[in-house]
Amino acid sequence: MEKGNKGVKLVGFWVSPFVQRVKWGMKLKGIEYEYIEEDIFNKSPLLSQLNPLTGKVPVLVHDGNPLPESAIILEYLDERWPHAPLLPLDPYERAQARFWARFVEEKILESTWLALCSEGEIQERAVKIAIEHLEMMEEKLGGKNRFFFGDDTIGHVDLMMGFVAYMLPVWEEIMAIKIFDATRFQNLAAWKNNFLNHPVIKGDFPSKDEMFTYFQWRRKVYLKRI
Ligand SMILES: N[C@@H](CCC(=O)N[C@@H](CS)C(=O)NCC(=O)O)C(=O)O
């Protein structure tokens, strides 16, 4: 166990992409922690106590201090355990990485999730927005880099984008709509391959079948079909 990391806990939910990226961050840094599974549909008093403002997971608890919000947790891990850095060391590059991390969250995750949970015109618009913004990520990555901002090492932006690699294909199958076109996004397709084959990431996410069942149900609930 790394020095100074005693008392690290993570409150999560098995299929949450937000929780998943924190788990990967901990693993990349070799931080040992206790995982506490939360039922987000029947929240425990512990979660309300740890995150009374939003009641969402993940919540990191370090030496009794709770911290919500996955991107902020990743930044905290980086500051508290600076080895194996997730953000670039150069201040300008760091700021850029934060920009792209937010871009992924606000432009790609939000639009793909909306596409999954809608139909008709709203869905069409969401798909268009997702594709336009993936195009920008494609250009940002370029054709030479294995990962965002780190060439050979997985970092903050890769972890934020991780859901595109393992979860978006399941959403696409449920919607029967292709958003991530590997011939159009060749740089991202190579990135996806590198990401999924990285020893820390490989197979470390819920199974396709479990995700399919869960997200199909979520879509039906949103469309009020059950
Ligand atoms: N911006 C948050 C989003 C977290 C989030 O939406 N978590 C979901 C699980 S995937 C949740 O806890 N939902 C429960 C709720 O909305 O009440 C983050 O990055 O941590």
Give a nutshell description of this structure.
The protein is of the alpha+beta class and 226 residues long.
Layout of helices and strands, plus pairs?
Blueprint: E1 8-12, H1 17-29, E2 34-37, H2 45-50, E3 59-62, E4 65-68, H3 70-80, H4 91-116, H5 120-141, H6 156-166, H7 168-175, H8 186-197, H9 208-222
Parallel strand pairs: 1-2
Antiparallel strand pairs: 1-3, 3-4
This protein binds glutathione (GSH).
Descriptive notes:
The chain has 226 residues and is of the alpha+beta class. It folds into 2 domains: 8-80, Glutaredoxin (3-Layer(aba) Sandwich), CATH 3.40.30.10; 91-222, Glutathione S-transferase Yfyf (Class Pi), Chain A, domain 2 (Up-down Bundle). It is built from 9 helices and 4 strands; from the N terminus they run βαβαββααααααα. It has helices spanning 17-29, 45-50, 70-80, 91-116, 120-141, 156-166, 168-175, 186-197, 208-222, and strands at 8-12, 34-37, 59-62, 65-68. A 4-stranded mixed beta sheet has the order 2-1-3-4, with helices on one face. A hairpin with a 2-residue loop joins β3 and β4 (65-68). α4 (91-116) packs antiparallel against α5 (120-141), α4 (91-116) packs parallel to α6 (156-166) and α7 (168-175) packs across α9 (208-222). The longest helix is centred in the middle third of the chain and has 26 residues, at 91-116. The termini are far apart. Residues 1-5 have low confidence and may be disordered. The structure holds glutathione. Glutathione binds next to α3. The site of glutathione (GSH) has 11 residues, from α3.
